[in-house]
Amino acid sequence: xxxxxMLEQDIKKVLITEEEIRAKSKELGQILTExxxxxxxxxxxxxxxxxxxxxxxxxxxDTHIELEFMIVSSYHGGTESxxxxxxxxxxxxxxxxxxxxxxxxxxxxxxxxxDLRELFLKRNPASIxxxxxxxxxAGRVVEIEADYTGFVVPNEFLIGFGLDYxxxxxxxxxxxxxxxxxxxx
Length: 185
Ligand code: IMP
Ligand code: MG
Known about the structure:
about 180 residues, alpha/beta, 6-stranded mixed β-sheet, 4 helices, binds magnesium ion, nucleotide-binding, nucleotide binding
């Protein structure tokens, strides 16, 4: 059993505030509204980390969209991307000829999104774009960039707003850094 404590006690510093996330999501939502007007895109959320960002972002998209979710796990032993992800839950709809927008919490090594993009390209969509709340470019080991990025962050382990440490802290309304002692417990 976890001790019943307030999450804030474990936070060393807040890197991105709730207000900053909301403002950035609004800005990105407005861009997507213009870019995808009349295109009826499918937003694909990669579970579980993308959920808070996706929920905030779609409030600011003022055109028709559809939602899909995926659960994936990567099985990368070496340094090369295999172009294959282990799909635990796939999208339910046919993506042929559709405009797809992947929504991610964070791009670190880039493997997850590189593999997902390669997989979905084989399904002949009209287009694929990537939106990520956070980008950690220093962590990259394969070549992939988001089309839209909320925040570029330093190479630190972050938690909150979908980002987890051992499945915890996803529900924090901001993005922050954990105190060292939390890892050592
Ligand atoms: P990658 O780009 O394939 O390395 O995978 C990105 C995934 O790694 C994200 O969806 C997160 O689940 C996880 N991840 C990477 N960096 C962090 C972090 O700083 N905090 C929490 N999860 C992270
Ligand atoms: Mg994750």
